[in-house]
Backbone:
């Protein structure tokens, strides 16, 4: 779980209660709960600083040992995560200093020129720059970027008005950026949360063993004991904030000469996986395109069913049941056939919320009689077995999603010549330039990355095999291979660059990707979140860098929605669409002038029949997360809530990356 979400879900009193139980009653179960809760934060910090799994685990155990010894001296239990994060940085640095330095071979001569700055050099520079900021500017950066708090939450934590928090956050970012630029490191500070909110898995029973070591029921290793000795005033609030600030800066920015620990996004949610079309299945009939919804209410419960014919062969059926105290979701995906008014549906996959559920054979096959209304905006489905009838209506003003750019429509996903792979190959296709004429295949077989650097379709050419990743990081059953600085050259001499390409092998067996690349003369663009490697060239996602068609869209990975109960941040990205799930390549917002950003016209449907829709217009000028724009939106009273209950028209006048056409999207409104 991301650390910021984790803090918000716990509430202010949970850590205080557990600490009190441990301090007053020596309740070891309370301390074990704290260790399990903060293992991702502490272990993740130690791994980023040390870059070595065993050293990081020793350092993390020492951190919790120090917590057990100093629990009564933690003055702000509500900020325990910050306290632990700061101690983790100090201990990890101590572990790094204890390492034996590698001596040069006898007779070797120093290089003629200083080596290029390394990631370790950059980390120190960032630490110094952030530590040099005055506390009023440093504190909001720590809370918003390390703890993942919203601005409202950070302001409440610090006891400041929201306007004060926003102003100091902006000034802090700019001063940090200026300090780093003077040191020769130009980076996008705004992507701190993307890099920091990364859950880190520990080995089985690691948390329980660590709690035993910290509470004295198991002996620490000599390395852990040594790291937990020495006097440093970890209990002073000011030092705590400074140490935390130093820790956070270590992973700031979009990229450096070498990247931080690989970012491992969570496995795709069932809805994202279910809605992925099969490129070989063709398109659904024009009449079936879009989403269809049926809503039934009674006895205080609302049942919403949504059908989507995602391609010519696959249908996704989503059921959302909401009543007092109950909010459940089920998602089914299967093959369908519509013939002579009979819809035959063979369920192949089923999820209850996020959990995969076995499809029972007796429930797999379903048949319905489909009857269209005269205007073709709705149809009825009658279950052939039960006789139950449900009426489905087209969701209003069908969402105009970003279309596939014209330059990509004629691309043939085919490789001319491939090497002999060691493992199962996974495929991505990168296109560069406004006309997408330069195509670069990237293929990973689990140990080696192949990149068609000259774009001729032959992956066996010299210089296109990368067997040594910049980082090879394993965490439990998750493995991440990160490659950096891959130069690409067109036959005419035009050059492009893949700054970072990460292959993420997840516990589920899926393989995700993180790609940061730059077309010549264009800004950096990144695809991250729901991007997955294809299992064949014909199913590969296609990413476009430097494309001519720039669009705005709601932030998909974060599931942008509105909340009728309280103001919520509505977030969008600006970039270039590609082909396939997760192929959107977003621009960093650093180039956008202060106060500029996309515009969202949000239309709400009133509860009173016949009343005019209520429209709210907001300027999305806040930019706290690098490639995202957002603004707080208050849902008016007296409007409908539910799935895709609001219509949002997005535009971006004077977009620095090219003209943006207006697009319309449906978004959810969370009910009170």
Residues:
């Amino acid at each position: 779980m991301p650390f910021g979400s984790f803090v918000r879900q716990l509430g202010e009193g949970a850590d205080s209660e557990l600490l009190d139980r441990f301090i007053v009653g020596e309740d070891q179960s309370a301390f074990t709960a704290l260790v399990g809760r903060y293992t991702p934060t502490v272990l993740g910090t130690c791994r980023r600083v040390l870059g070595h799994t065993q050293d990081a685990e020793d350092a993390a155990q020492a951190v919790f040992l120090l917590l057990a010894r100093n629990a009564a001296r933690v003055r702000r239990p509500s900020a325990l995560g910050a306290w632990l994060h700061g101690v983790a940085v100090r201990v990890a640095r101590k572990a790094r200093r204890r390492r034996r330095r590698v001596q040069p071979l006898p007779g070797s001569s120093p290089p003629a020129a200083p080596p290029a700055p390394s990631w370790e050099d950059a980390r120190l520079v960032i630490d110094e720059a952030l530590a040099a900021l005055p506390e009023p500017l440093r504190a909001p950066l720590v809370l918003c970027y390390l703890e993942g708090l919203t601005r409202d939450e950070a302001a409440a934590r610090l006891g400041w008005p929201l306007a004060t928090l926003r102003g100091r956050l902006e000034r802090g970012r700019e001063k940090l950026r200026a300090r780093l630029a003077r040191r020769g490191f130009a980076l996008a500070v705004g992507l701190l949360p993307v890099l920091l909110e990364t859950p880190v898995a520990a080995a089985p029973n690691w948390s329980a063993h660590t709690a035993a070591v910290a509470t004295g029921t198991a002996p620490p290793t000599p390395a852990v004991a040594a790291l937990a000795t020495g006097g440093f005033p970890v209990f002073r609030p000011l030092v705590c904030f400074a140490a935390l600030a130093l820790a956070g800066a270590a992973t700031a920015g979009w990229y450096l000469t070498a990247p931080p620990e690989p970012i491992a996004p969570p496995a795709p949610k069932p809805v994202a996986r279910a809605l992925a079309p099969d490129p070989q299945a063709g398109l659904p009939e024009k009449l079936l395109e879009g989403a269809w919804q049926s809503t039934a209410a009674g006895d205080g419960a609302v049942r919403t069913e949504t059908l989507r014919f995602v391609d010519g062969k696959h249908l996704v059926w989503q059921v959302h049941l909401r009543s007092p105290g109950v909010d459940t979701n089920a998602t089914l995906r299967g093959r369908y056939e519509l013939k002579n008014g009979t819809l035959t549906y063979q369920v192949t996959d089923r999820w209850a919320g996020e959990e995969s559920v076995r499809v029972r054979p007796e429930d797999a096959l379903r048949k319905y009689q489909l009857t269209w209304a005269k205007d073709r905006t709705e149809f009825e489905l009658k279950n052939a077995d039960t006789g139950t009838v449900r009426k489905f209506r087209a969701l209003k003003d069908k969402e105009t999603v970003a279309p596939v750019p014209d330059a990509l429509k004629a691309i043939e996903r085919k490789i001319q010549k491939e090497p002999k792979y060691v493992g199962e190959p996974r495929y991505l296709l990168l296109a560069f330039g406004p006309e997408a004429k330069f195509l670069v295949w990237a293929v990973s077989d689990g140990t080696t990355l192949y990149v068609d650097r000259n774009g001729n379709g032959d992956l066996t050419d010299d210089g296109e095999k990368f067997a040594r990743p910049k980082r090879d990081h394993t965490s439990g059953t998750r493995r991440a291979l990160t490659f950096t600085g891959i130069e690409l050259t067109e036959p005419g001499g035009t050059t492009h660059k893949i700054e970072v390409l990460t292959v993420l092998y997840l516990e589920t067996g899926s393989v995700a990707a993180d790609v940061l690349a730059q077309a010549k003369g264009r800004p950096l663009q990144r695809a991250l979140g729901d991007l997955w490697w294809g299992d064949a060239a014909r199913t590969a996602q296609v990413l476009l860098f430097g494309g001519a068609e720039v669009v705005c869209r709601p932030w998909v990975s974060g599931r942008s929605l509105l909340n009728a109960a309280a103001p919520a941040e509505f977030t969008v990205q600006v970039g270039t669409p590609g082909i396939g799930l997760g192929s959107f390549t977003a621009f960093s917002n650093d180039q956008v002038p202060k106060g500029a950003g996309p515009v969202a016209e949000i239309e709400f449907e009133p509860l009173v029949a016949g009343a005019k829709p209520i429209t709210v217009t907001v300027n999305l000028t806040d930019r706290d997360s690098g490639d995202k724009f957002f603004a707080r939106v208050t849902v008016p009273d007296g409007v409908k809530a539910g799935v895709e209950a609001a219509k949002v028209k997005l535009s971006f006048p004077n977009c620095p990356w090219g003209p943006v056409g207006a697009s319309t999207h449906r978004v959810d409104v969370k009910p009170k």
User: Anything to note?
Assistant: The first strand starts at residue 291 and ends at 298. The CA atoms of residues 189 and 253 lie 5 Å apart. The chain has 16 helices and 28 strands.
